[in-house]
Write a structure and sequence with these properties.
There is one protein chain. This protein has a 3-stranded antiparallel β-sheet, covered by helices on one side. Strands 1-4 form a two-stranded parallel ribbon. About 35% of the residues lie in helices and about 15% in strands. By secondary structure, it is α+β, with helices and mostly antiparallel strands. The protein contains 15 helices and 15 strands. The C terminus is likely disordered.
């Protein structure tokens, strides 16, 4: 015979601090529920409600965490109790004093480093707790006075950069240890606030959730446990991050590949050691669960590779960058030049951009692609097979003669006629006009949208008068390329506007709704 139990739970009251719900009242997204940031006064009212017992739980955004003031006095008391912070700051100040003796050494210091060098630990703490320009503290609220007795941090790996590796006596920072530095403001902000919670509860009350406890550096394990208990490693005789590295990190001399593709011998992290001791400490403060153990069914990854051939201009640029990399690798670096590593890394980045689109390495970005702007272009000449690095063009100032005569904005003027025919079947693409001599192409297929078929006929540039010199010929070709680029940008803008209008309006398309149409084709200038 089964029995039924009745459990009575208290009425928990939960609030979100940092953002509030907003319902969009107009436009195509009318009625959609979204969020917007809260004002300092709104956040303060919720904190006070938590402090006075009107709320039981608050969900806090990362940005709102730093907007609660922390009094300096309890933070200074906490730092004096943690040997890792004291020793780290002492070593950093010693190195800063040595750097200050060098020529221009102080100019290379950050504001936090100058504060530590000139005014000591207190100034360093105040610099960390200072808000960025334009931010305000939540008025009348101090984190260490609210009385928080539990802090749960989701995606705790976002705060992993508390202690960063420092240069070692045997020559710099080992490979695969992560970058050096003073740690991130976000990590130290959380550390100070976690310390206030532990002070409230007698050492407990901090819970971290993450699927990647040590992703980039083995030191990240040490950092996350510091938020929970800074004394966790004391039983093993470890009082600071450098002692953690000495005890548990295996560092060996290995052949490594440098950024300029050279093999050199260097100290590198190759694994862990004394794993039994490390496991004992980690498992005493953490639990590990797989997806199956918690009943989480992960989706099966599906990998699909789509190969797209590069066009003529992409091939030319790609070959040029490959030849430049090969030339750098073949020539030894000049003395005191610092090596070609940065140049090669930049060229590799351009290779990736060119493989996506021929114009991505030319200075275009989301801010100037539609509104004009100035971009330095590497113009490919198919007649010579060369790419000219020296040409620059201003999309904002170089306009067509017609637009200049009418004082119209070339990006707003309908340079390309657009025909929208919802009931008409898909039209055959218009016959492509002859491409200009500098490798630009105006050929575009028809584009299907929710409103029907959108076809566009590019306007061919007017034939210029016969040039009388090489300079005039060069200018004529450049103007033709610019004019056509503006036309294609206008075509893109009109296409997007038509798609937005169609998405917002009910469709009268008599065709069956389950007919799949080709996706919106990208329309971007090729040159």
């Amino acid at each position: 015979m089964s029995s039924c139990s009745l459990c009575t739970l208290p009425d928990y009251r939960v609030a979100v601090i940092g953002s509030k719900r907003k319902i969009i009242g107009r436009g195509a997204r009318k009625g959609l529920i979204t969020s917007e940031p809260e004002s300092p006064e709104e956040r303060a009212r919720k904190w006070i409600a938590l402090q006075t017992g009107q709320l039981d739980v608050v969900i806090l955004t990362y940005e709102a965490l730093a907007r609660t003031k922390v009094n300096t006095k309890p933070v200074m008391a906490y730092i004096k109790q943690v040997e890792a912070i004291e020793r780290t700051l002492t070593l950093r100040r010693r190195r800063l004093e040595e750097q200050d003796k060098t020529r221009g050494g102080r100019d290379k210091m950050t504001d936090r480093q100058r504060a530590l060098l000139e005014h000591g630990t207190r100034a360093w703490v105040e610099e960390i707790l200072a808000l960025p320009d334009g931010w305000e503290y939540d008025p009348g609220v101090a984190w260490d006075e609210i009385g928080i007795d539990m802090l749960v941090v989701d995606e705790a790996a976002s705060f992993k950069n508390l202690y960063l590796p420092q240069p070692r006596e045997d020559g710099g920072i080992p490979k695969f240890m992560g970058g050096s530095g003073d740690g991130s403001n976000r990590a130290w902000q959380l550390d100070f606030r976690a310390a206030m919670v532990r002070r409230q509860t007698g050492g407990a009350g901090v819970v971290l959730l993450t699927a990647t406890p040590a992703k980039n550096s083995p030191l990240e394990l040490y950092n996350l446990i510091q938020f929970i208990d800074p004394t966790a490693f004391y039983s093993a005789g470890i009082y600071d991050p450098e002692q953690f590295i000495d005890r548990f990190i295996k560092i060996e001399l290995r052949d490594v590949l440098t950024s300029d593709f050279k093999i050199e011998s260097a100290s590198a992290v190759t694994g862990f050691r004394n794993l039994d001791d490390l496991r004992t400490i980690i498992f005493s403060k953490s639990e590990f669960r797989s997806a199956a153990e918690v009943g989480l069914q992960l989706p099966r990854p599906i990998v699909e590779t789509v190969t797209v051939a590069m066009d003529e201009l992409q091939e030319a640029k790609y070959d040029k960058y490959v030849r430049e990399i090969e030339r750098i690798l073949a020539e030894p670096a000049k003395p005191d030049s610092g090596g070609p590593s940065n140049v090669i890394v930049g060229l590799l980045a351009r290779l990736s951009l060119v493989a996506l689109h021929s114009g991505l390495d030319e200075g275009y970005n989301l801010k100037n692609a539609l509104d004009g702007g100035v971009a330095t272009r590497n113009v490919y000449d198919p007649r010579t097979g060369e790419v000219d690095d020296d040409e620059t063009m201003s999309v904002a100032s170089t306009i067509s003669d017609d637009a200049a005569a009418t004082e119209a904005d070339p990006l707003e003027a309908p340079a390309t006629p657009v025909i929208i025919a919802p009931e008409a079947p898909a039209a055959d693409p218009p016959e492509a006009p002859a491409a200009p001599a500098r490798g630009y192409s105006s050929t575009r297929p028809p584009v299907a949208t929710a409103a029907g078929n959108l076809s566009a006929t590019p306007t061919a540039p007017s034939s210029p008068a016969a040039p009388t010199s090489a300079a005039e010929e060069r200018m004529t070709l450049l103007e033709a390329a610019v004019r056509e680029g503006l036309e294609e940008i206008q075509l893109l803008r009109d296409t997007l506007r038509a798609a937005l209008v169609a998405a917002a309006a009910p469709t009268n398309d008599p065709r069956p709704q389950n007919v799949s149409e080709p996706p919106l084709a990208p329309i971007t200038p090729q040159g």
